[in-house]
Backbone:
């Protein structure tokens, strides 16, 4: 009895010791900047000078800032559109790749590549393809007669956001495919055979067997990707720069623009902080589903 | 019976058609990146470039190494990614063990903190982080990344390793503990060997995350010799003039290591070597 007791004490001590490094990383390196970020969003902080508390002035400013509302709206469109496309395409690819056929391994590996590449590489390559004069996309569209004039993918304010979304979708579909395929492969094939014998068609099988079994992983993957897409900086920044004239500006690029181009850190932080409530809600939903799955 | 065969044929044809279209969609940008990196400038900057014609040259790669000194940037990326991965994994193996096997006050709180920090957006953190690192005297240097990158690599590793460790039955460890093994011995001789494939996959993804990172590295560094590969490539432009040949060559080089790593890791995941379970 005494041995067991001393074991629990030892465990307690060891557990706390093993947590020290991670606590340092999370609470010191991340925690302190986070708290300061929130504090500075209530100040007139600029690079190289001290911060003065100015209350809600930055946030009031945002209310009247058209670019802020534009960026928020763009962020919602960008996130919603990208997630929907990535989810549907990823699901389609996963279901197709879960069958037995020749060349399955090849397709699976090839379709995964975009997710491995640095986001910067993907963004620069698409930007080059989008180029209105030298770009291959316009060249192909013109040769095939689909358009008569070159499309201004990156300089037409009406389509520039969609141009950036295509790039995010291109890179993100494999993540959905891979997560979903991982679960599909563990499903019992006999269930499907039995369903076929009972006369259930492909769509019925999908709706009543496949979907319920993959729904936990669908929820977790979708939420994770929603959080990433919502905060996406590098893709928008490198493909469009947020322009022309903020036409494709999102919260992350607008924060950067305020901080390092307009030099007002306080205002920049109020932009970034203003969406924290949305993120907290998404995080809570995520950890709820995550716990349930485990 | 006949009609079932026919349905199957239709199903397979549809599968192939959709997958081949998907493959073209996936491969095309890669093809264009590689092709552009081997095309002479004169052929690149023409209206209506051709899909297949190529005036082959390796000059962009020579330019990349000789003029742009890209090896320095690759070296920076490699150094940062390697150190961050090793540090992140070591810390996370211990922490994940503590979170899945030991009972101590605040365990639940720490576990949820890890998840939250895994999801915290860079957009909120990059400004205070920039000031924090400058105050440490690391502003403008590659060393800044060694302080910053653990903030996303460590929570990610913990998140992954925890699920691998949870899948290992406690009974395996219990026997060793009764025989007088200490906790750390059991971690080293039982948990780590069983979870090794999972640890390997986590390591490759952690490495890729650091290698691919862009925003922090862009803010922190200004001089060419301190930049990581991703930042260096995107900096090769002068106003509106963008050196596409060199950029595409750099993209090819920067993509190769992570693509190879990913293909190896995914084959491990698919073959089930890394599902963290005991069969």
Residues:
């Amino acid at each position: 009895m005494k041995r067991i007791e001393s074991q629990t004490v030892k465990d307690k001590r060891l557990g706390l010791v093993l947590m020290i490094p991670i606590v340092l990383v999370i609470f010191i390196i991340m925690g302190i900047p986070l708290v300061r970020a929130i504090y500075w969003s209530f100040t007139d902080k600029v690079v190289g000078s001290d911060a003065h508390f100015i209350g809600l002035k930055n946030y009031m400013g945002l209310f009247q800032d058209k670019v802020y509302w534009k960026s928020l709206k763009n962020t919602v469109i960008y996130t919603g559109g990208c997630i929907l496309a990535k989810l549907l395409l990823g699901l389609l690819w996963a279901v197709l790749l879960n069958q037995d056929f020749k060349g399955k391994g090849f397709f699976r590996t090839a379709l995964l590549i975009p997710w491995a590449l640095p986001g910067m590489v993907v963004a620069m390559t698409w930007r080059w393809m989008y180029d209105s004069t030298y770009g291959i996309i316009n060249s192909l569209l013109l040769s095939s007669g689909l358009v008569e004039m070159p499309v201004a993918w990156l300089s037409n304010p009406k389509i520039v956001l969609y141009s950036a979304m295509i790039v995010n979708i291109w890179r993100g579909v494999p993540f959905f495919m891979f997560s979903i395929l991982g679960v599909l492969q563990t499903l019992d094939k006999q269930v499907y055979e039995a369903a076929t014998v009972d006369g259930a068609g492909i769509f019925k099988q999908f709706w009543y067997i496949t979907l319920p079994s993959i729904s936990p992983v669908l929820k977790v993957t979708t939420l994770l990707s929603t959080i990433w897409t919502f905060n996406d900086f590098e893709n928008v920044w490198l493909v469009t720069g947020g322009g022309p004239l903020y036409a494709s500006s999102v919260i992350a690029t607008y924060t950067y623009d305020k901080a390092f181009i307009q030099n007002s850190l306080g205002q920049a932080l109020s932009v970034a902080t203003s969406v924290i409530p949305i993120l907290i809600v998404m995080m809570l939903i995520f950890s709820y589903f995550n716990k349930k799955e485990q | 019976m006949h009609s079932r065969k026919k349905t199957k044929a239709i199903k397979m044809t549809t599968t192939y058609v959709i997958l081949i279209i998907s493959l073209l969609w996936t491969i095309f940008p890669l093809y264009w990146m590689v092709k552009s990196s081997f095309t002479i400038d004169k052929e690149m900057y023409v209206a209506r470039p051709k899909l297949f014609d190529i005036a082959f040259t390796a000059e962009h790669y020579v330019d990349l190494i000789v003029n742009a000194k890209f090896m320095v940037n690759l070296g920076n990326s490699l150094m940062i990614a390697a150190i961050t991965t090793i540090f992140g994994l070591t810390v996370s193996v211990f922490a994940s063990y503590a979170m899945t096997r030991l009972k101590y006050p605040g365990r639940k709180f720490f576990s949820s903190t890890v998840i939250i920090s895994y999801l915290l957006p860079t957009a909120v953190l990059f400004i205070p982080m920039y000031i924090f690192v400058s105050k440490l005297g690391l502003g403008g240097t590659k060393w800044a990344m060694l302080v910053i990158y653990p903030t996303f690599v460590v929570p990610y590793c913990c998140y992954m390793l925890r699920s691998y460790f949870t899948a290992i039955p406690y009974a395996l460890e219990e026997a060793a503990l009764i025989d007088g093994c200490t906790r750390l011995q059991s971690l080293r001789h039982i948990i780590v060997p069983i979870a090794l494939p999972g640890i390997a996959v986590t390591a490759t993804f952690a490495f890729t995350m650091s290698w691919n990172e862009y925003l922090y590295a862009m803010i922190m560094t200004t001089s060419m010799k301190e930049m990581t590969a991703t930042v260096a490539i995107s900096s090769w432009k002068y106003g509106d003039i963008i050196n596409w040949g060199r950029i595409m060559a750099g993209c090819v080089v920067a993509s190769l290591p992570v693509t190879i790593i990913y293909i190896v890791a995914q084959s491990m995941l698919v073959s089930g070597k890394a599902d963290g379970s005991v069969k």
User: Anything to note?
Assistant: The two ends of chain B are 39 Å apart (CA to CA). Confidence is low (pLDDT under 50) at residues 273-279 of chain B. The first strand of chain B starts at residue 237 and ends at 238. Chain B touches chain A through 93 residues (CB under 8 Å).
